[in-house]
Write the structure tokens for this entry.
Amino acid sequence: MKNGLDADGQPNNLRFQQARRTERDVSEFLGLAKGVLADGLVAEAEAHLIRAWIAGHPDAVHHWPISALTERLERIYADGRVDEAERRDLAELLAALVGGQAGMLVGQDTATDLPIDRPAPPIVWTGSVFVFTGKFVFAPRAECERQVTRLGGLPESNITRRTRYLVIGTFGSRDWVQTSFGRKIQQAVDYREAGQPLAIVNEDHWAASLP
């Protein structure tokens, strides 16, 4: 483009620089997470440390899944404390983040190869049946189901002809056919191919649709 600007009038290398900063921040966060998980636990002081790191990296919090981690920490700290169950849940989430680092570094979730609907359909909450599978960044599955209930939807455990949405957690394995939750995904694919109005969506789309 003229004068070194792109089609949006931005310097040609601006987006590249932003991508590099995001990659650097995510790599730094992964290092922090690995250190916190060295003993397999998240102490209260370590939870405070993670929260402080996020506060000091405002660019990173706009990128999935750190954005979702930020939201979860806000919910955890809503009562001003971090209890044992919340620390245990946070440890599981950090372990999943570390395990999914390759996808995070390129700005994608690790469920990219799964048979999700493209383009992702709009989410209709009232009266729709939702089934969740995989591991979630947004919140534990019970909280995801509570959000559905809050918005007039119906969470269920198994895929049936009633299912309108199967939501796959960010940490769905690329080798989903061989996983324990792969049976739900395969059943949903079979229903969808048979003409049932069933959509398969990833956690990012589902979470972004929450009002």
